[in-house]
Specification:
Length: about 475
């Protein structure tokens, strides 16, 4: 789906790894200084709406805030009201200080600590309360709801969590869906990088907060695709699912495809949504080992440098750098266990894609930023795109870029931009079929959340990836993207 008007597409090759302060210095804000009192007036909701939202969410009842309803109807709506979600566990020890600083600008009822308040509570109770006010003829409530923007202060997982909850508004016909801006508090921050909000939480954040808020209320918008992953596997095997995957009812598989293995009589199904990437193979295995260690011995993984050292150690320990000269079946190419079908853009037909035997990790990527700001798909020249039948990659084009890593050395060269990854396809839908053979398990990850996927020698496991039919609306941290 193409963007238009005030919501330009985001080019996947234009990711930057600048800091928050640098990324908010867009051309339109160069030299702009907004007095604090004026900014506060622009973003702060009237007291009766703030209290109504607070009481509705606290009681988990949309009518709990009804007694705050202002029958005079002469209150003016703010120009650009904001609601902020902060993951206080992210960003080192700055989370609580950030909450206090933001509340100084707009009041505590508009700034939520995600350890205490969940985003679905705002959707289900807070916003529903002011929507009820609007239905009663409250123009201030109506305009406040229509102008609302959201800020998420956290990592990619936190941002995806909030975007998923906001997507429920579209599903319920409660539009508009508020646009979302980001303050990066995580480790990779690839969503933040992709939309111009930088790759790290600056040590000078206190001085930058006012400019960040000014940028949020004035910045243009962009669209973001998200992708639905469904796993259908033989029943009986235990799957230790990450937060992003939930057990769901049995899903009927697309009958247009031939399958290599047998269909089990009973299946278990899991469903989740990703915004950045999904991968199968040795990169996920390394991520899984790292996450296990961090959970078991959190004192070893404190800070980015320590994390990178541990991550590199796992790459070597698990053999990724030496796969060409090792006989372990789990280190062989994915083509031994995996068949991949895709649908190309605007095509109803499935196409079987041949996987190179050298590929030990396969990634389906949606954003221009992967693994803390890398772009493994690369900045491809027009003639190469035409030769391969590819189009220029964008985060709202309804396509995933699918590529592979051969082994650790290959991945390392890709990550320092010396070469591109092995380009495989661009796809509007993907079907993976896995069957164990000599493999008992394989590893997968979705937006940085890894898990161990059990394999079956007799029956196939299927993974279907399809685009979510509506897009998230993002606030751009910079205005110099094409």
């Amino acid at each position: 789906m193409e963007s238009s008007g005030q919501e330009p597409s985001m080019n996947k090759t234009s990711s930057k790894s600048s800091s928050v302060i640098e990324s908010i210095k867009g051309r339109s804000l160069a030299g702009m200084r907004i007095p604090k009192d004026e900014l506060r007036r622009k973003i702060t909701m009237p007291e009766y709406l703030r209290f109504a939202i607070r009481d509705s969410m606290a009681a988990k009842d949309i009518d709990a805030g009804k007694h705050h309803y202002d029958t005079t109807h002469d209150v003016v709506a703010p120009e650009s009201p904001l609601v902020v979600f902060v993951n206080s566990k992210s960003g080192g020890r700055h989370g609580s200080d950030l909450i206090s600083r933001l509340q100084d600008f707009m009041g505590e009822e508009q700034v939520f600590d995600l350890q205490n308040v969940k985003p679905h509570e705002l959707v289900k109770y807070g916003l529903a309360c002011i929507e009820n006010f609007a239905a009663l003829g409250d123009c201030c409530a109506k305009e406040t709801r229509e102008r609302l923007r959201i800020i998420v202060a956290g990592g990619d997982g936190t941002v995806g969590w909030v975007l998923g909850c906001l997507g429920e508004l579209h599903e319920l016909g409660r539009e508009p869906v508020p646009p979302t801006a980001i303050i990066p508090l995580g480790t990779g921050n690839d969503l933040s990088r992709s939309f111009g909000w930088g790759g790290s939480f600056s040590i000078k954040w206190k001085a930058a907060i006012k400019r960040i808020l000014a940028r949020v209320i004035n910045a243009p918008l962009a669209r973001l695709d998200s992708w639905n992953l469904v796993i259908s596997m033989p029943a009986g095997a235990e799957l230790d699912t990450p937060y992003a995957l939930k057990h769901t009812e049995e899903v009927v598989l697309d009958q247009d495809l031939d399958i290599e293995g047998q269909l089990p009589k009973e299946v278990s199904c899991y469903q989740g949504v990703f915004y950045n990437y999904f991968s199968i193979g040795m990169d996920a295995q390394v991520a899984y080992g790292f996450h296990q260690l961090r959970n078991e011995k959190p004192y070893l993984a404190q800070g980015r440098i320590a994390n990178k050292i541990i991550y590199s150690t796992y790459c070597c320990k698990q053999g990724w750098f030496f796969t060409p000269c090792m006989n372990d079946p789990s280190l062989r190419g994915l083509n031994n266990i995996l068949r991949m079908h895709i649908k190309r853009l605007n095509s109803p037909n499935w196409e079987l894609i041949s996987l190179p035997s050298s590929i030990r990790s396969i990634v389906a990527l949606n954003l221009p930023s992967y693994a803390s700001g890398r772009n493994p798909w690369g900045n491809l020249k027009p003639e190469y795109l035409e030769k391969k039948g590819f189009v220029e990659a964008n985060s709202d084009d309804g396509l995933l870029e699918i590529f592979g890593f051969k082994q650790g050395w290959h991945a390392s060269l890709v990550m320092v931009d010396l070469i591109s990854a092995k380009h495989i396809a661009q796809a509007a839908a993907v079907r993976f079929e896995l069957r164990g053979g000599t493999w008992r398990e394989c590893f997968m990850q979705m937006d940085g959340e890894p898990w161990k996927q059990p394999m079956n020698n007799e029956y196939s496991t299927f993974l279907d990836i399809k685009r979510v039919p509506f897009q998230s609306i993002m606030v751009k941290g910079e205005n110099n993207h094409s």
